[in-house]
Design a protein that fits this description.
- With 165 residues, the chain is mainly alpha-helical.
- Helices cover 72% and strands 0% of the residues.
- The chain has helices at 10-35, 41-73, 79-101, 109-119, 121-130, 137-140, 142-152.
Length: 165
Amino acid sequence: MITIDLNIDLKFVLFLIVALSGCYFLYLALKETLFGNVPSSPAAIGRALGIIILGQLVSFYIIWYFCYVLAFLGFNFQDPDFSIVHSIVSVLFVVMAGLISVRTFEETKSMNIKIVCVIGLIPQVLITFLNLTSTNIALYLFIPCILLGGYLSKYMPNESLNRDK
């Protein structure tokens, strides 16, 4: 006779709720910043800084959660696996921040890039040094990734007449 153990760990359920809510809030933020109304210059800077922080932290938690689930199932991830995945996620969100910072209806794109390069270093340094499993590659490539995102924005449609309401 086969028995099924329905004893679900409360910590596992709590981690699942946090991971799902983090995914939902990250989805809302990305949907609004990439496909929502084209904001003014200060709002574009705020969105870019928010994506640097929210995107990386939620992604790191989700990566940790999947590794927790896989460890629960018997798989084992080592520290280099965490570092590689965290580095890729960090670089992608920093490039996305550069892309978002120039998506504005005002002609302040170069100023936005410069502001995000300088002010965005503060949360990136905190994320890099407080996250012990991540490498410093995203910090070293921060300014080039922001500039790359600004360059890639030329290939993204920008409806200049669609302003915040």
